[in-house]
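Hi everyone, sorry if this is the wrong subforum. Our group has a chain we'd like a structural model of before ordering constructs, and none of us has done structure prediction before. Sequence below.
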Amino acid sequence: MPRHVASDDELMQTAARGDEAAFSELRQRHRGWVRSLVRACARDDQADDVTQEVFGRVHQPANSDEGQGGFTAWLTRIVVNLAKGFLRLERPTTMVSLGEMSNSAEVV
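Answer:
Right subforum, don't worry. Here is the predicted structure as tokens:
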């Protein structure tokens, strides 16, 4: 008789009840594509940190309800949002006073 392979949604439900083996299986299944997506959204040197943060968020009990679209869609939203957050933190900001803006001849 074939062995039942749990779906991602089943594993997430089990992991939400504290089963570390279920969470480890989810992480193993998805780590590769999560890291690839992170690298597409953030710098290469940030990929490991963002990937670790993604699975930290997934593992938090408050985040165990993946909502509409299933586990993979929910995980993708976490990846993109965290990668964008890391990019926002890295973006240099320049402060310009309103006086400087009004004196500028260049309109952006």
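For your construct planning: The chain has one domain: 8-103. Residues 8-103 form a domain with the Rna Polymerase Sigma Factor; Chain: A fold (CATH 1.10.1740.10).
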